[in-house]
Design a protein that fits this description.
homotetramer, alpha/beta, Rossmann fold, 2 domains, seven-stranded mixed beta sheet, six-stranded parallel beta sheet, 11 helices
Chain lengths: 368, 368, 368, 368
């Protein structure tokens, strides 16, 4: 199968190449770039030297050669390519935000500043979080008309961390706070002061506090799973590391899930009852994800860490309670470039084509 | 003035040496260590070579030579030295948790596993957060009997970030969440798997979720400032950097401080009203800290970052609101080894002796 | 095929697991550890969770179950296991230094402080650098008696960088200087002050200057390729990164290979003649390695960097001349844990069993 | 004293501000920038907030207000400012390469691509390496006409590491190899792919091999000290750290300094004779630098490391011999932004004005 990648020279594009070059069903690439058309990918990414060597072509050319097209483009420019693929019956997997909001154009426009170019495409598009929408993806694929809105990196980690609590009534009313830290590849390949080594190394800081575009995407996923609106506060941080997203998610416990012994006065270390409640919730999570190939619910005593899913498509989840027993604290970890972007896109491709869902994604996390 | 440091070979001890060696009122050191007695400090810390060279003596010897004693010891072992200093009329500045809880021995014991050795010492001790207790420090100093319980690193950043909101009624009822990330010097000099380079570099993870000893200290400070109990959830993270603590603090807004335009439905980007409310709160913070030499309330558009207080005694604070207008999000940044430990201890020494409070602490943060 | 790994809990052992778990010919593991016998590998390495789960057994047990045995043990303790495997006709791939010196026990003993335990094993052992000894490896494998002395990390990068110059008479008489920097995984899993994050992050330093055990191994390889003794100076550095070895190798040019225009007086930027001479040498290197699957000779304008072979079995080589035209400067880059240890061991296994030499080693380097 | 800084917004400019703000003789700044004229320095560098706050003025304005002028400009544009200062009798300390080559305009032009703008300025300029030219600096200062060509970062570390060997006949004939690694601040504030975090973190690589502009500067210093031409090869590397330069310098020993026991055959660990010879050379170094306030010759057993001079003006030097006894291996470490740039410039200012040479430069290196 020939895979087309539009926007192949950005980091998500390059990561797609790295993963798909080893995919058992992929025989070749058609790599496209507007900015670097005519240049060679292995000159831009010398790490590919001798493994993937190709001249960059125009997007149209890539579409015409491919059996599946990935787009790793800026927001708001890919719809024409999506339309062309839809018309040609070729699956289109879009890593931008353009197909993440379905019919809710108002929310998309409020955060991304543009209307949809082709509204009708949304009747063939689906938000590509397999753990949420696997059956819908298959349905569209069966109809030979499928556009994937591949999820944002932060929403992937946040959603997988909160889903069981939302689906099973563990989450009570009240705001869920998602506090996340991302590695610097999350900022992409474009040069920027924020990603200039001396200004981000050895330092951590939030950005776009109360104003990040992934907030509505997270809220949308939470609401879909809880079948009710869920207030969300989301704060992204930039951490001095290459890869990974670690989300610490604070979920108010439903009354029925709170430990019976109320905490009063000064905080005390967690009681046995609190640990047992955490264990009970952990079992709910394990059960919820028991058939998911890429979600690992960690046992008691192991806390999710971004470095332990490095280079893999896993989402690791660990379950905790605050010492007062009012709040579920879920920690989720993904590799932002894999499960948070290119890996999840490949997972979607696998689902669409009926391949083993883990094909090309079997890498074991490298501890270092 | 001769300064005694007990526990001089740990990281906090070494940082005290680095700062005090340039203090205009300090003429020499008496450095003590139980584990390394007889060895030379410049062999253990070759960065001191040619600047501070001394053999390590017994604690008792250091006490006998010094006009002020700092103790950078593990929790639960320093009280005899405190007593000796008190009896001798020498100020004792303790960087452990032993004097952070005043009369509340029950909380101390619950978290640190020991009773007080000498309860009565607490009538001469004070929690040494100058922004909270400056006048009490001076009072005890005037009486020539003063023990400082130097604050924990996380509680310093968390408390300074929340104090104005707590004091001025901006914080409403409800739990305050403190989500913090620390550099790895926070773990100290002792070898540990968690701090072995390949296992913490390029990764971020929380630890002791719902169970960190700084939780009661933070809650205590919040309650002191709010004059009411304040529920607190605190999650520390280990970030791949040498120094710094960044705290993102989620404070439910009191009804009177909420923007009037309620948010309903899917999240929208922050409105002008939200930004104005943030500006109003920022002014409260600026006013609250206007006489504090080490707290910088950052202007709109600049977000606190741990790397911008590096090697300094500053606490930087930036003020934000979530997009729905329900929650104040305060970001505070300190250098965990300076304002979070040794620098604050020096600040306490300056207050005790009536020196310029910034003496020895004038370093401008290094951006890198 | 069941693979036995003795010393499975060290970093090289863990990296073997990571690579071999995806090897097409490997069906299972027998993992052994003396220190952690009875514990579970996925508890020690939670990154393996859900992928490789096994209790650690005794070395003898692993040997009895396996069709091939890897030993990732300290130097000087593995010979009994090698003998057992030899007797049983099972290939033994040793990642320690015990089988790197063939008959030259004197050199081994001078640097490693021990005599050989079973001298006669050396008639069935070979230094497992495939680019040097591939045919001998096959020969021993054909005889069903084969012990591999898997090369040291530094010697691998240094040797591959210098081999064509030594074989083709480009290197003249005089000392070759190998100046290398390694990531901190090179120090292994054992805790040590040198690898405590705050003391190695954001800093670079050499260690064991003029005294590193890889010196005789490098010299031995150089001599083997040049068919004459070659004086070598080797300086290893510790660089603040997880993986990778970068070697900058200074090779005095044979008179016949020097640019004709002699340089006199103050240095001048490189001339066109110097660049042409470098290009000529680059062609010799390309030709020398044209059939090697894991050596990439980089084109003009691309300099080898450790980060561009990350997680792969490649050795990247770039060719340069000093501005005076007297010295060939070769830069080689490997991943110390892959081509420098576990990957090369797998490559040796592939050769022994007649598998595709790249089986299990096809990973494309991750740029980040 | 009012200090003028032209080019205040680059990293060297910012570091000058950080250091000079605490200098006891400095009362204020006149900060100039062409690119950012009219903007405020504390907005560009929020780490300065509340400590140094100023609008950026035109260079001419800064010159007119100042008693001393530092220029941290690109090469080839500062001479007019130097001339203006010279005419006004104001010391001009230039951090570019424009005044590092004295009369040797040919070498300057060959490497920097421009002729001198005002040749005659060189009769009042001096290469500002105090350890080489302190008396000449004082002479020019006494004449009230002084331009300092502040040394390059690499040449500072390389020169101080080699000077005693060159001056005392320890270095024999033959090429000296300087293999250096720099932190990424060495690349300055301007955005560049090479300094984009994901592409330089966790990786090390050389750059400009055989072609770096600091080569002629190093050669010039070596020749000045040895009073003969000294062939030099210099290779700079970029290491994943913020600050610091570590140079490993290979100096062929003069015959008279070689250990008597010749090494033959395979390398052996260093003998006692080799260690004694190293100790002898170490004593020569100690004696050579005994009056230098910023050079530390480290004792046996301590190897220079870039992280141990962090934030200080020290140059640390450690002395080693290769195991064969043919080559002196000197390791030198500086902070590239301090002794390698701004700190050395301040040191020059101190000499010019007759201040304590360590004024403003007393910082003790931070281990982390």
């Amino acid at each position: 199968m020939i895979v087309g990648i539009i926007g192949a020279t950005g980091y998500a594009g390059a990561e797609l190449i790295r993963l798909l070059a080893l995919h058992p069903e992929v025989s070749g690439f058609a790599l496209a770039s507007v900015s670097f058309e005519g240049e060679r990918i292995e000159r831009l990414y010398p790490n590919l030297w001798g493994k993937v060597e190709a001249a960059l072509v125009k997007p149209e050319e890539a579409v015409s050669q491919a059996q599946v097209v990935f787009a790793a483009l800026p927001h708001g420019v890919g719809e024409p390519h999506a339309k062309a693929c839809l018309d040609a019956g070729i699956p289109f997997i879009d890593l931008s935000a353009d197909f993440r909001f379905d019919d809710d154009e108002a929310t998309y426009t409020a955060w991304y500043g543009k209307p949809y170019a082709h509204k009708t495409l949304r009747s063939h598009s689906v938000y590509g979080l397999p753990e949420l929408n696997r059956s819908r993806i298959k349905e569209l694929a069966a109809a030979k008309k499928v556009i994937i809105g591949n999820p944002g990196c932060y929403p992937t980690g946040a959603s997988l961390g909160a889903f069981p609590a939302l689906a099973k009534g563990i989450a009570g009313p009240g705001t869920i706070i998602v506090d996340s830290a991302s590695g610097i590849t999350g900022g992409g390949r474009e040069l920027s002061r924020a990603f200039h080594y001396p200004e981000c190394a050895d330092s951590i800081a939030p950005y776009k506090v109360g104003a990040h575009r992934h907030t509505p995407e997270i809220a949308r996923n939470f609401a879909a799973m809880a079948a009710r609106p869920v207030p969300v506060i989301f704060t992204p941080h930039l951490a001095p590391m290459n890869r990974g997203i670690l989300s610490t998610i604070y979920i108010p416990l439903a009354a029925s899930w709170r430990p019976k012994t109320a905490s009063v006065g000064a905080p005390r270390p967690p009681t046995k009852e609190i640990e047992e409640k955490a264990a009970e919730i952990r079992r709910v999570y394990e059960d919820f994800y028991k058939d998911e190939p890429f979600v690992r619910v960690l046992p008691e005593g192991i806390i999710a860490a971004s470095g332990r899913v490095r280079q893999s498509n896993f989402c690791d989840i660990s379950i905790h309670l605050d010492q007062a027993g009012t709040t579920l604290v879920v920690v989720s970890a993904i590799d932002n470039m894999v499960k948070g972007a290119a890996g999840q896109a490949v997972q979607n491709m696998n689902i669409i084509f009926g391949f083993d869902e883990t094909a090309g994604l079997k890498a074991i996390p490298a501890l270092f």
